[in-house]
Amino acid sequence: MTATSRGAFIVIEGLDRSGKSTQAAILQSRLQGPEQSTTKAVLIKFPDRTTTIGKMIDAYLRSQSEFDDHAIHLLFSANRWELASTIYAHLAAGTTVIADRYAFSGIAFSARKGLSYDWCRAPDIGLPAPDLTLFLNVEPGVARTRGGYGEERYETEDVQRSVRVVFERIGEEMKTDGQGQWVEIDASREKDLVARNIWRVVEPLSRGVASSLRKLWE
Ligand code: TMP
Ligand code: MG
């Protein structure tokens, strides 16, 4: 890291069971390197189920409570806003931040229910913008065969198929509107190969970023 650089903000997105959490952990340990004494990379997961808002989201996902579709959408967004200052602080300290899901999941999972795409995007406008978003692309049929699928709300093949359609729209828009890089990764491949393909894209950012951080969709 040079005197003027900051940490990179890297988001990992994808369907449920696309391998996001596994790959985020591999990436973090790779960025962290052998020197464990200084923190070079932190991993943040959305939803962050540990906060007060996160606990409400967790109960909803486990079907222990119900919310109006708009209300739960806003809670997911609020859960990102409550972590925004933490993200800024890490980046300013030169630490790379990896987010396991972000605003793109927020849009994809709510717009598929029929909520307006623009309405879904609005509450996340102004959040820290990622320098790079890795979209782990996997066929919903492949994801379904992976362990743990089907335990939570949204973990059905039908839902995932419609979520994927919205993700495709988001990816197209991100590629054309200069909102940082959106890179698709074939997540149906073997774990180590996926990790290598991810590292190839992340490596140039691993020593810090010189440009100032942007705000999402502003
Ligand atoms: P997880 O499986 O990564 O813990 O995410 C929980 C579920 O919440 C997953 O099905 C995606 C969904 N989700 C939303 O509906 N809106 C959001 O803003 C986020 C971050 C996740
Ligand atoms: Mg899940």
From TrEMBL:
Pfam families: Thymidylate_kin. CDD domains: TMPK. The keyword Electron transport does not apply. The keyword Amino-acid biosynthesis does not apply. Pathway: Pyrimidine metabolism; dTTP biosynthesis. Residues 12-198 form the Thymidylate kinase-like domain. Its EC number is 2.7.4.9. One of its GO terms (biological process) is dUDP biosynthetic process. Keywords: ATP-binding, Kinase, Nucleotide biosynthesis, Nucleotide-binding, Transferase. GO terms for cellular component: cytosol; nucleus. GO terms for molecular function: ATP binding; dTMP kinase activity; nucleoside diphosphate kinase activity. NCBIfam families: DTMP_kinase. PANTHER family: THYMIDYLATE KINASE (PTHR10344:SF1). This is Thymidylate kinase. It comes from Pisolithus tinctorius Marx 270.
